[in-house]
Structures are given as structure tokens and as C-alpha cells.
Design brief:
mainly alpha, 178 residues
């Protein structure tokens, strides 16, 4: 019995992993299925907030995307729906969309300070130094959804509260001179 579990369980786990990867690729491929730049950029926006691309030059982002497509940046899996030819147009689209306002145009820093100060009860302000507001907001949403295995944040935070708090934490850190 134990021998059966030892030999069958890894195979079952392997099959589940193959099925999960296949399903995630299918969903990602559907995101870029119509072939438009917007559709292909939506693949990136499945994990990254649009304002996380603010501050990038299109050429610099294209270099990063090319590295991901080529498999040189291993920690960032990218679905096969993005080809080498898609890299420059998608990078330009993301940078343009981020510079057009993205989430930054709607941020309320006063609300962000009210909500963000509760984070400072456990976390030092300098812990937020490496984040951009969009990336931090994405991470906070993942915590709120219970996806990261970290302590949950208050479920009373709305999506706007999270965006505001992330923007305040990042800007307060920049203002502190760190």
C-alpha cells in the first residue's frame, strides 16, 4: 500500500501540474487571441497594475519583455501568446497607457495616509522603498485575497483604499529621503 502511494502520488501530482499549466496557458492565449496590441498587453495586466509601468521608457520595457520572451528572466513566466514581434508594440502600449494617467489620476493621498498608517503598525516605512505604487497595490490585493500566505490585511479595504494606501506609502517613503 505504501509503495503504491509512493509511486502513484508523484505521477498524480505531475498530471495535476501538467493540467494546471495547460489551463493557464489556454487562458493566457485567449487573452491575446484577437491579435490586437491591447489584447496582448492584457496578458501583462493579469498580474501587473498599469501604473507599475509608469516611469519606464518603452525601449527599456521592451528589453525586459524580450528577456522574458527569450526565457532569460526565469522568475517571470510569460505565456506563449507574446512573440518577439509583439515586444516593442506591447511595451509602447503599456508605457503610453501608464503615462496617460493609469491609477495615479484617481489616487487620494489623504485617504491613502489614513489607510496606510495602519500598515506602519507592523511594517517600517522603508520596507516600501522598493515598490512602485501599482506594484504595491497589486501585492496588497493578493494579500487581501489570501493568495500570498502572509497575514491578511483588513477586509474592509476597498480597491480604491488599497490604491490610495499604496500610493501614499510609496510617496511618503520618497518624501522621507530614503
Amino acid at each position: 500500500m505504501l509503495q503504491d502511494l509512493i509511486t502513484k502520488r508523484p505521477f498524480a501530482i505531475f498530471l495535476c501540474c501538467v493540467a494546471a499549466v495547460g489551463a493557464s496557458r489556454s487562458v493566457a492565449e485567449d487573452a491575446g487571441a484577437d491579435g490586437s496590441v491591447e489584447s496582448k498587453a492584457s496578458i501583462c495586466l493579469g498580474c501587473h497594475a498599469i501604473d507599475s509601468f509608469s516611469g519606464y521608457e518603452a525601449d527599456a520595457l521592451a528589453t525586459v519583455l524580450a528577456g522574458i520572451v527569450a526565457g532569460e528572466i526565469a522568475h517571470m513566466p510569460l505565456p506563449p501568446a507574446l512573440s518577439d514581434q509583439d515586444v516593442a508594440p506591447v511595451a509602447a502600449y503599456l508605457v503610453d497607457a501608464a503615462s496617460a494617467g493609469g491609477a495615479d489620476a484617481k489616487v487620494d493621498l489623504a485617504n491613502g495616509e489614513r489607510k496606510g498608517r495602519s500598515c506602519l503598525g507592523c511594517h517600517a516605512l522603508e520596507n516600501f522603498a522598493t515598490y512602485e505604487a501599482g506594484g504595491l497595490a497589486t501585492y496588497l490585493r493578493a494579500i487581501l485575497a489570501g493568495e500570498t500566505g502572509h497575514m491578511r490585511i483588513p477586509a474592509t479595504l476597498s480597491d480604491q483604499d488599497i490604491a490610495d494606501a499604496a500610493a501614499w506609502l510609496v510617496s511618503a517613503n520618497a518624501d522621507s529621503g530614503d
